[in-house]
Write the structure tokens for this entry.
Amino acid sequence: MSEAATPAVAAGSRISTTRIVGVAAVALAVSVFVQNAVFGGTGAPAYSDPLGVVLTYHAENRGAFAIISGLETVNMVLLLLFVTALHGLVQRRGGAGEDWSRLAVAAGAACSTLFALFIATQIVVVLAASNLAEPNPAFALMWQLHAAIFALALPALGATFIGAALATHASGLTRPWQRLLGMAGGSLLILAGAGNLAIADGSPLIFVGVLGYFLWLVWLVVTGLRLIRGQG
């Protein structure tokens, strides 16, 4: 390969990586949206609902939860692909924002682990609900653990959001308003996560995190489409 061809190959590789990051971002947003649509469509209980309601829901929606738990596997892979490919893209563009992309990788790994535990505890709740006539202390404990893990996953997602938003902006991949969206949404997630004890006890503080979560999905779609088009 000639030296003259090297820059063209490098540029092609960068464009390919840019599109991989974009596709991963959009695919993650779609998968998470579908997952939450199934949650909402089946009338998933809130953490403040009585345990009897929680037991009935999980006993009656085992099939729907099989879809939900399967999508969580997809989400985990897509999130890790997104943050890892983003870090590589930032490095190829000169390294501006590299520290923030490292934060996104580390926080994304922690977030994936916590959401895996989140789904794992709910799998236990589903299996237990199939064999219980009424909630027992072990069932109640597992449901509270499930809620606590979700609350702790929020700040990990917030750090991922902020790291990714600042990294993409520093590298010239996104516009200033997308950085502000990332800072706002990530801060909401971290703020909600700081009230993890209250959320595990059924506090409406969870809706602060839900708003941050929604902004994360918006940012993923907008940023992903921009990168797929090769903008930035």
